[in-house]
């Protein structure tokens, strides 16, 4: 895989996210992938595809219109794509959120094996 292939996969990933097709999105990961995500706890947490689907199903129940808008993509070597994006959504009580996020995706054989996500999780 080269940087262009990985960029194409990232675009596909965000298309699945914005369509709330959590199964297709989860299938882009290896069977068990490494995550760094403040919502999952400290350090590296392994997640299966089933756990990924469950997490995002819960997210879309809390924010039915959740969507991500990619700001920039930075391919890095043959395995990584760094993505800046803004996640937005509206809760059932009409409160809205807008969260800038940066994720480093690591690819092996066309699948995401690492998803290291950074954002300010101390927002009001």
UniProtKB/TrEMBL annotation:
SUPFAM superfamilies in the record, alphabetically? NTF2-like (SSF54427)
Residues forming the SnoaL-like domain are 10-113
Q: InterPro entries attached here?
A: NTF2-like_dom_sf, SnoaL-like
What is the organism of origin for this protein? Rufibacter sediminis
State the name under which the record lists this protein.
Nuclear transport factor 2 family protein
Against Gene3D superfamilies, the record matches this protein to:
3.10.450.50
Q: What is the lineage of its organism?
A: Bacteria, Pseudomonadati, Bacteroidota, Cytophagia, Cytophagales
- Which superkingdom heads the taxonomic lineage of this protein's source? Bacteria
